[in-house]
Write a structure and sequence with these properties.
- The protein is of the alpha+beta class and 507 residues long.
- The protein folds into two domains: 251 residues, Glutamine Phosphoribosylpyrophosphate, subunit 1, domain 1 (4-Layer Sandwich), CATH 3.60.20; 180 residues, Rossmann fold (3-Layer(aba) Sandwich).
- Helix content is 35%, strand content 23%.
- The protein has 17 helices and 22 strands.
- Strands 3-2-4-1-10-9-11 form a seven-stranded antiparallel sheet. A six-stranded antiparallel sheet has the order 5-6-7-8-12-13. It has a five-stranded parallel sheet with strand order 17-16-20-21-22, sandwiched between helices.
- The two termini are 36 Å apart.
Length: 507
């Protein structure tokens, strides 16, 4: 999961890109980067950390140019190495910089092809660098050798070849030195990407692309719409927008977990309001609890902040129960789901949330969360509720049981680390310490989200049902993913990286 921004306008775009990245910071807290172009010269700043920590005044003063791209990263492929912060850059043809959200499912094959056939050397383990080099190779063959000019139709022709070679999920923004910005989205539209304009038709008109519409809203851009699945968008230096579908068979199949957890509630994705979809999730789950347990003894509904608030409020309305804020959140602690390592996640939960005892003491409480993945958050929060004096603690998940890894850009852990993998609902309740547990059904979840745009007939629901929309995922691939994503493997890599850094510093 990552966040993307691309922007072109009459003035310097550095500050606007910075502000947009802060708006979508929730999509990645590991690293941040901005590249701008001034004439034919590019300026780059990227590093590990939050946006506010990576960019200082001296950095912003150097990021000159009227077009550029930005990225916030959460690593799913590769590692949390500084070298894998984005954007990535290659100097041929013309100079290309790329920011990517998603995951290539044939990255290993492409890496081998790039070395043996395309004669291109890669410096990192990131599939984003692979995607950049594939695009660079294809663009090089589309450039008119006589004029050395690049036309929109040349760009679209190159993207068609990229679509033929690259499988998986990818929303991409690309800076082409001397020409403008390019954006494209995989044929299934798994990861989001939107486009908008500010003051269209005026001399100050500018164009912006971003992972979520909220970034455009905050900066005063009018949303034109989503970049369609299989579509490429080229924005020239004058803000002219050229669009073309580059895949013959495309089907919008957005990741449903975007609506459950990843996206901000004030975003619109593929014509669906995230906030409204979460309201409907709560409504459906509330009705199911009322049907299955009409004589319940629940006293109060309490959300696990922040993502579950919307669903919890609607559940309370349906069940005719009090809604209360029972936990106070420390805003300076990052999202625990995207933190590396089990120990770090557990420590962060205690620092992140504190219970208000008056809302728990002597009550039967229904805690509501967006989902249960590892069970770390759920287990700790239920313990906090009991320590605060709750008589009985029930738990509700606005999403179905997460039983399968996500291979399209969300770091769902290895299958063996998924709490629901081989457990029944009763066993999961026992594991997290809940007196009773309720899950959303997959049919209800899909209906809750699809209601906002009935034209979408399919979602990527792979983490719930194991059905992967790209059709190229088998047991061998999942075993490889699992071997890379286990917490113990990541911690070993991190330790080795730290050891190497310390050794280099010593010498």
């Amino acid at each position: 999961m990552c966040g993307l921004v691309g922007m072109i306008g009459p003035g310097h775009v550095n500050q606007s890109i910075y502000e947009a990245l802060t708006v979508i910071q929730h999509r990645g807290q590991d690293a941040a980067g901005i590249m701008t172009c001034e004439g034919t010269r590019v300026h780059l700043r990227k590093d590990l950390g939050l946006v506010r920590d990576v960019f200082h005044h001296r950095h912003m003063a150097q990021l000159l140019g009227h077009y550029g791209i930005g990225h916030v990263r959460y690593p799913t492929a590769g590692s949390d190495d500084r070298a894998e912060a984005q954007p990535f850059y290659v100097n041929s043809p013309f100079g290309l910089a790329l920011a990517h959200n998603g995951n290539l499912t044939n990255a290993d094959t492409l890496r081998d092809e790039l070395f043996r056939e395309d004669l291109r050397q890669l410096n990192t383990g990131s599939d984003s660098e692979i995607l950049l080099n594939v695009l660079a190779h294809e663009l090089r063959h589309k450039v008119d050798s006589g004029t050395l000019k690049l036309r929109p139709e040349d760009v679209f022709s190159a993207v068609r070849e990229v679509f033929k070679r690259c499988r998986g999920a990818y929303s991409v923004v690309v800076l082409i030195v001397g020409y403008g910005l390019l954006a494209f989205r995989d044929a299934n539209g798994i990861r989001p990407l939107v486009i908008g304009q500010r003051r269209p038709g005026s001399s100050e008109a500018s164009v912006m692309l971003a992972s979520e519409s909220v970034a455009l809203d905050v900066l005063g851009y009018q949303v034109i719409g989503d970049v369609d699945p299989g579509e490429a968008v080229f924005v020239d230096l004058y803000g002219g927008i050229h669009r073309e579908t580059c895949v013959s068979e495309a089907q919008c199949s957005p990741c449903i977990f975007e609506y459950v957890y990843l996206a901000r509630p004030d975003s619109m994705m593929d014509g669906i309001a995230v906030y409204k979809s979460r309201l409907r999730m709560g409504e459906k789950l509330g009705h199911r609890i009322a049907q299955e347990w009409p004589d319940h003894d629940i006293d109060v509904v309490i959300p696990v902040p922040d993502t579950s608030r919307t669903a919890a409020l609607q559940m309370a309305n349906v069940l005719d129960l009090k809604y209360r804020e029972g936990f106070i959140k420390n805003r300076y602690i990052g999202r625990t789901f995207i933190m590396p390592g089990q120990v770090q996640r557990e420590r962060s939960i205690r620092r992140k949330l504190n219970a208000i005892e008056l809302e728990f003491r002597g009550k039967n409480v229904l805690l509501v969360d967006d989902s249960i993945v590892r069970g770390t958050t759920s287990r700790e929060i239920i313990q906090m509720a009991r320590h605060a004096g709750a008589r009985r603690v029930y738990f509700a998940s606005a999403a179905p049981p997460v039983r399968y890894p996500n291979v399209y850009g969300i770091d769902m852990p290895a299958a063996e680390e998924l709490l629901a993998r081989d457990r029944s609902v009763e066993q999961i309740a026992q594991e997290i310490g809940a007196d009773r547990l309720f899950y959303q059904t997959l049919d209800d979840l899909v209906e809750a989200v699809r209601f906002g745009n009935p034209a979408i007939t399919r979602f990527d629901t792979s983490c719930f049902d194991g059905t992967y929309v790209t059709g190229d995922i088998n047991d061998d691939y999942l075993a490889t993913v699992e071997a890379r994503r286990r917490d113990d493997v990541k911690q070993a890599k991190e330790s080795n990286s730290l050891d190497s850094t310390e050794l280099a510093s010593f010498f």
